[in-house]
TrEMBL record:
Keyword set includes Signal: yes
Residues making up the signal peptide according to the UniProt record: 1-20
Entry protein name: (Mediterranean fruit fly) hypothetical protein
SUPFAM superfamilies hit by this protein: PEBP-like
The entry's keywords: Signal
């Protein structure tokens, strides 16, 4: 049995790979009904996510807010000469059954050279999962986007 306010479902994705067959990521996103609820198409592969406590995240795994309170390291197939964007969101606030507020941004970093997130420009600093009352679990999504060979210009 899930303990209310102590767990959430962590999902992660990568969005710029191509494959002719269903991958583990595609099956996971369809099984969890992320496609078509959140995304039109599933990602082709999963990100590698590692928290400072040595926890390596596996797609669809339940983790506690304590386990994920600190900013993770994220790895994906990257060209060091290309700039990327990393996004972490919860698409169903407060719950999937009642997404009244809908999507909540937990982390946004742009102009990341390769996978070196520390060298990127932080627009929204990492906020670990929140503990909504009366919610057994909720979903968190990580994604990376292949931007371009030059930095995005920022005017905020």
């Amino acid at each position: 049995m899930l303990h209310a306010i102590n767990r959430y479902l962590l999902i992660f994705l990568a969005v710029n790979s191509v494959s002719a067959e269903d991958t583990e990521a595609e099956r996971l996103f369809r099984d969890l009904e992320i496609v078509p609820d959140v995304l039109d198409e599933p990602p082709k592969e999963l990100l590698k996510i590692e928290y400072s406590n040595g926890l390596n995240v596996v797609g669809g795994e339940e983790l506690t807010p304590t386990e994920t309170k600190d900013e993770p390291k994220i790895y994906w197939p990257a060209d060091p000469a290309t700039y990327y964007t990393v996004v972490m969101t919860n698409p169903d606030i407060p719950t999937r059954q009642n997404p009244a507020t809908r999507e909540w941004l937990h982390w946004l970093v742009v102009n990341i050279p390769g996978t070196d997130i520390a060298q990127g420009y932080v627009i929204d600093p990492y906020i670990g999962p929140l503990n909504p009352k009366r919610v057994a679990w909720y979903e968190m999504y990580f994604s990376y986007i292949n931007n371009r060979k030059s930095k995005c210009s920022m005017s905020l």
